[in-house]
Structures are given as structure tokens and as C-alpha cells.
Amino acid sequence: MAKEAFRETTKASSLPKTEFIPKSKRSVLQTMAPILFNTIGTDHGDYIEQEEVHVKNPHLDSMEEDILYHFDLGTKTHNLPEMFGDIKFVCVGGSGNRMKSFAQFIHRELGLPGDMDDIRDICAGTDRYSMYKAGPVLSVSHGMGVPSMSIMLHELIKLLHHARCRDVILFRIGTSGGVGLAPGTVVVTKQAMDSFLQPQFEQVVLGKVIVRSTDLDQGLAEELLSCAAEIPDLPTVIGNTMCTHDFYEGQGRLDGALCSFSTEEKLEYLHRAYDAGVRNIEMESTVFAAMCHACGLKAAVVCVTLLNRFEGDQINSPHRVMLDYQQRPQLLVSHLIKKRLGLIQ
Ligand SMILES: O=P(O)(O)O[C@@H]1C[C@H](O)[C@@H](CO)O1
Ligand SMILES: O=c1cc[nH]c(=O)[nH]1
């Protein structure tokens, strides 16, 4: 899409508007103070002068201490630059166990010293999220749904900032429902869309809706796709991902405790999504894309499909098949990490 700049807009009614502002019409404030207009410019070079991780909150500067409450970490209690300063890749996914096994897997893949079984949960002091570090890779759980992901990301981005990390790339490695794809297919997200099939994320702030862009790094998505071509038996596509606020009715399932629509209405919705380029449905991609984009962080969403939603709603593959599927995004992202670190050609 040809677009020079977006501005965060607020709205009172339900239909969001994303306003286009040509560069020539941007005010001095918009040009000089990206902190206030943090989605201006689809080209991050517009406002990012350093490679450090930036937070877009002027209030943080005046705080003596920052407690990352849900991580049980803080700027006074922990030496964040020493603990995390070498992080280059952050992988996030819903479950703590998945992110622990990913940390162990990447530890082995990178040939890191020490026993991968000794890897410990950095957030053990809280049971909200789990966090594991394997060399330059941080593996963090985010729970289910947008609010849980959003809280985790606020604290994660601040952590990367306080730790003075540079050139960090974020990946969501998750599961999803496929739309017109065979189960087990990996979808690299081109554009994260909301339930209205709009490429945007709405956040209610002070009783108003703020609309943020969900643009992801297209170069990174293409790089993942070419990595997938180098891995045997890893069916992978690029497509749009729909992010919903519910697993059941919200994703057009007929098998929840409540259902307010017919089979025909469900299929009409899924076909409409398919026609808009949607190839999978999950519950975190829009906020993940929006927050990374707003903070100038390169990010990608890589989710495996557990079923084809045109064929059903229940997830009924055997446990060992599910485990195999869940490892596919991990395999793909670890391949890219190894390539970027020069460990493989
Ligand atoms: O990362 P995960 O596999 O948890 O992502 C999807 C979206 C929801 O969080 C959850 C629903 O089962 O799976
Ligand atoms: O159908 C599915 C499967 C996994 N996760 C989702 O959000 N939906």
C-alpha cells in the first residue's frame, strides 16, 4: 500500500479512521516529536536515529526506579544491562512450557556452553510470565489474548530499553487456526488484521480509541519464507493473520458454551476473511505488531495451523502430532537466527 505517514487517531464511535498525512503537510511537532505521534512514518528511518530500543513515554525519564512488576524485575534491584544487554533476538509464545523448551532447543542449536537442563526461569518470582535466556536469545511467555500480550510487551520493551539492547528482532512463535490450509502449515504473517479485517489495532486510552498500525517488517517475513524453503517438510506460506479477542464465538466457532450464529454465517465470515488474504486466526498478532511498530522494533509473527477452520472447530489431533506442529515455528525461527549469527550458510 502506498502510504507516506499514518497518525494515531482517536475516535468516539466504533468505526476507526487511520489518517494519511503527506510528509509536506506534517507539522514541526510531528516531525520533531515522534514520541507523541508514535506511528508517524512507515519508514522507521523517519524517526529512529539510533539502533537502541526506544520507549515512547516521556514520563519514564523522570522515574527514579522502574519496577517491571509482572516480571519481578526492576531497575534498582537488578543490573538489567548486565543481565540482558547482549540480547539480539526475543521469541515470545503463549505457554511457559513451550518457551522453556524453545530456550533449551535454541541453547542446543547455538552450541552454547553449559547444560541446557540448567536453564532457569528468570521470572520465577512471579507466576504471570516465564522468561528464559539462551545466549543472545530471550524466550518469554505471554499468556493468551491481547491484554496479556500487551502487559508483557510493555515490560519487555522497557526491559530491552533499560538493558540498552541494540538491533533486537522480535518473533511471536505460536499456534493458530488455519483458513483453507492443511493442518501443520506454518503461516508467516504479512499483515495482522482485526476481527473487522482491518490492518490495525485499537486501544482504549482515557476513554477514547487510539488506532495503531499493525505493519510488520516485510523483509523479515520474506527472509523467513526463504529459510523455510531450506528446511525439509516445513510447509510454509505468507498470509494475513486475523487476531480476535476470543477463541470461540470470536473466531466463528460453533462449539463454544455460547453460539449466536448458524453454520452458513460462520462459513460466510471465514470465506470473507480468506478473500481478504487471511490464512490463519490467533489472538495476539495485532497488539504484537502494533507495539513493535510503534517502538521501531523489527518483528515477525510465525504461527503453525492446528486445523483447517473450513473443515471444523475442534482441535482433535493426537498429542504427539500437536507437539510436532508446535515445534515448526521454533524450527523456522531458529534457522533464521543461526543464519543471522553466521552459524550456518
Ligand atoms: O501462542 P499461542 O499458541 O498460545 O497462541 C494461540 C492464540 C491463543 O493465545 C491460544 C488459543 O489456544 O493459542
Ligand atoms: O483455532 C485456533 C487454534 C489456536 N489458536 C487460536 O487462536 N485459534
Automatic annotation (TrEMBL):
Q: Which domain of life is it from?
A: Eukaryota
Pathway it belongs to?
Answer: Pyrimidine metabolism; UMP biosynthesis via salvage pathway; uracil from uridine (phosphorylase route): step 1/1
Pfam families named among the record's database cross-references: PNP_UDP_1
Q: Where does phosphate bind?
A: R128, R172, I173, G174, T175
| Homology family | Belongs to the PNP/UDP phosphorylase family.
EC assignment: the record states 2.4.2.3
A single Gene Ontology MF term assigned here is: uridine phosphorylase activity
- Which protein is depicted? Uridine phosphorylase
One example of a Gene Ontology biological process annotation = uridine catabolic process
The cross-references to InterPro entries, in alphabetical order and at most eight, read: Nucleoside_phosphorylase_CS, Nucleoside_phosphorylase_d, Nucleoside_phosphorylase_sf, Uridine_phosphorylase_euk
Q: Which GO terms describe its cellular component?
A: cytosol
**Organism of this sequence:** Anguilla anguilla (European freshwater eel)
Kindly state which keywords UniProt assigns to this record, in alphabetical order.
Glycosyltransferase, Transferase
What residue stretches are annotated with the Nucleoside phosphorylase domain?
88-337
SUPFAM superfamilies (UniProt xref):
Purine and uridine phosphorylases (SSF53167)
Q: Which PROSITE patterns match?
A: PNP_UDP_1
What exactly does this protein do?
A: Catalyzes the reversible phosphorylytic cleavage of uridine to uracil and ribose-1-phosphate which can then be utilized as carbon and energy sources or in the rescue of pyrimidine bases for nucleotide synthesis. Shows broad substrate specificity and can also accept deoxyuridine and other analogous compounds.
Recorded catalytic reaction(s): these are: uridine + phosphate = alpha-D-ribose 1-phosphate + uracil
Residues annotated for substrate binding in this entry: Q251, R253
